Amino acid sequence: MLEKLEELQKEFRESVGTLADKNSLADFKADYLGKKGKLNDILKGMREASADVRKTVGAKANEFKQEIQDSLSAQLLKIETAAINAKLEENWQDISFTDSVKAKGLLAAGYHPVTIIQREIEDIFISMGFDILDGPHIEDDFHNFEALNIPDTHPARDMQDTFWFADMKHLLRTHTSTIQVRGMEANDPPFKFIGPGKVFRCEATDASHEMAFHQLEGMMVGKDISVANLIYFMKALLSEIFRQDVNVRLRPGFFPFVEPGFELDIECLICAGKGCSVCKQTGWVELLPCGMIHPNVLKAGGIDPKKWNGFAFGLGLDRLVMMRYHIDDIRHLHGADLRFAEQFKSY
Ligand code: FA5
Fold first, then answer.
1. Cα 250 to the chain's mean position, in Å?
2. 113 C-beta closer than 6 A to ligand 1
3. What's the CA-to-centroid distance between 55 and ligand 1, angstroms?
4. Tell me: the pLDDT tens digits for 135-169?
5. Are 52 and 124 found together in one domain?
6. Whole-number Å distance between alpha carbons of 241 and 123
């Protein structure tokens, strides 16, 4: 009996690994452990056997039963894992941007043109030693207006139509100049940083105006900084971005947080200065307001204006993108037309 049991065990071990599906596993189990199965068949003669044999064979048979259960469970796990892997293999997709993916017509991801330009500008300023700061979209009155020399009743508040929250204390920031205030709060001079981000204004849209758009703030605070320093950095930026000669003009501009303030306009690249809907027929596009930081702003940021001074600028990123890629309507930048977005895939 012991010999037969060992033979059956050998046969079991040889075949259990070849079972390939759940049904054959169930049949196999019944074949070995069922009432009329192979194991019971061998154990039929147990009643007549001596006590010694019954003890040895009984122990061996129990061990074997356990082995059968364990091996069948392990084989079931193997079969299920193989099935899952086969399914994964079948549904596998190459999402790297290879020619084979393009050929299959799968949509490949790319960067939005605003992101492309933003990163280029970040690289330019990093190479000139600037840090990059961030700030929240939801701001308070202090950071958006008060600290920027725009007190409560100041008419300049009407220059930027504001989305206020119901508490009338919080708002969606109307410009990235809020990052100037946060930068001054967090740093001791001298410092220089840029702060790119989304801004929001409650105004009607047209070819060059959006309600949600992007700006990139810049601030440099140090000793004896002059308008010449400001113009140097603005020129460096524009020549890197456009890599071509562009006509610019500097004219006086009013912003309560700078004195003197300037508007740096670029000759419209859409119409080559002839006049179109983007430049409102003027031939020039407002791109880069800037100026020397007002002493009140430094004070509000905890910086002594008798010791330190500096410049700040607030670049309109969407309009820069429009000039760079000759896009004739800002609303294309925020639309959902994939034919537009796909032109900028950078892979
Ligand atoms: C400001 O927002 C000032 N905070 C900029 C500044 C910073 C001045 C530091 C001085 C020193 P302004 O409202 O002009 O300024 O907006 C800045 C730029 O954002 C504009 O030149 C323009 O390029 C862009 N811009 C303004 N409004 C819109 C709009 N609705 N849609 C798209 N771009 C806009």
1. 36
2. no
3. 94
4. 999 999 999 999 999 988 887 677 668 999 999 99
5. no
6. 11
> Which domain, by its residues, includes 74?
2-91
Q: Are residues 289 and 328 in the same domain?
A: yes
Rounded Cα distance between 166 and 223, Å, is 42
Which atom of ligand 1 sits closest to the CA of residue 215? 19
Ranges 92-101, 267-276, 297-306, 322-331, most confident:
297-306
Which of 237, 247, 186 is CA-nearest to residue 216?
Answer: 237
Distance of CA 59 to the CA centre of its chain: 64
177 and 310 assigned to the same domain = yes
SS3 316: strand
Q: Measured in angstroms, how far is the CA atom of residue 339 from the centroid of ligand 1? A: 28
173 and 87 fall within a common domain: no
Please state, in angstroms and rounded to a whole number, the distance separating the CA atoms of residues 10 and 15. 9
Whole-prediction pTM: 0.71
Cα separation, 102 vs 46, in Å, equals 71
Domain assignment present for 180: yes
Q: How far apart are CA 336 and CA 111, in angstroms?
A: 14
User: Are 83 and 223 part of one and the same domain?
Assistant: no
Q: Is 311 among the domain residues? A: yes
Closest CA to 186 of 141, 134, 125: 134
pLDDT given for residue 155 in this prediction: 75
Backbone angles phi, psi at 25, to 5 degrees: -65, -45
- Identify whether 331 is part of a domain: yes
Tokens of 198: 């989304």
Residues 106 and 8: their CA atoms lie apart, in Å, by 56
Helix axes 51-91, 22-33, angle to 10 degrees: 180
Separation between Cα atoms, residue 173 and residue 287, nearest integer Å: 19
Closest-CA residue, ligand 1 atom 28, reads: 209
Host H or E run for residue 231: helix 227-242
Are 77 and 119 found together in one domain? no
**Joined tokens for residue 300:** 């509000």
